[in-house]
Amino acid sequence: MKILLIEDEKPAASRLQKLISELLPEAQILSPLDSIQTAVDWFMQHQAPDLIFCDIQLADGLSFEIFEKVKVSSPIIFTTAYDQYAIKAFKLNSIDYLLKPIDPKELETSIQKFKRLQIKPMVDIQQLQELLQPKPKEYKSRFMVKIGEKILAIQASEASFFVSEERVTFLQTMAGKRFILDYTLDQLEALLDPKQFFRLSRKYIAAIESIAEIHTYSNSRLKIRLKDCSDNDILVSREKVMAMKEWLDGK
User: Is pLDDT larger for residue 233 or for residue 158?
Assistant: First the structure.
């Protein structure tokens, strides 16, 4: 039986070799490959091994790039430091996974599983990519507001700005209507899409469409006038000026 290791950390590779040799003394453990490119080159020049132990995160990228470039039919046991709950999905398309540092008993269980199955599944690269890609954050899209006995849904896209007055937070719409919200501005800042809304000051969060005028002000600050807003003293601090300019530029 030929076993290939794909691992860029020499101590981890040496320890894994030792553990495998103790469990499978008859196995031929090939010299470890330490990068995506060396692995691709190896697979293009050699026959597939009987079993692969593959670390997910290599120095030059994620190892599933290897399987995008070359067709590999060998069963794979992944070794990884990724969270064990997220990694469970890998088991659908691989023999098993081992969390680092590798536990000898878990390694033995994985090898026994390989012996029982004696199959050579293809790695589902698309599923691995989707799992490892960070999921885009979802921002609040609507707010429920109460008007008398009625409850209405106000879309976040309808909001012109949010203002805190005497510890009460208001949402003002593009149409000039105001509604009380059960959120603080700090909470709203975390919930709103930062591409659409900006925290101007301790009192205001504004949508980009609500900006009517911007003026330079003393001490390198900016003075903002919002549409349908009677407050003429909205100041952006010097520390926030650069961030606001980048926000306006769409960066």
Answer: 158
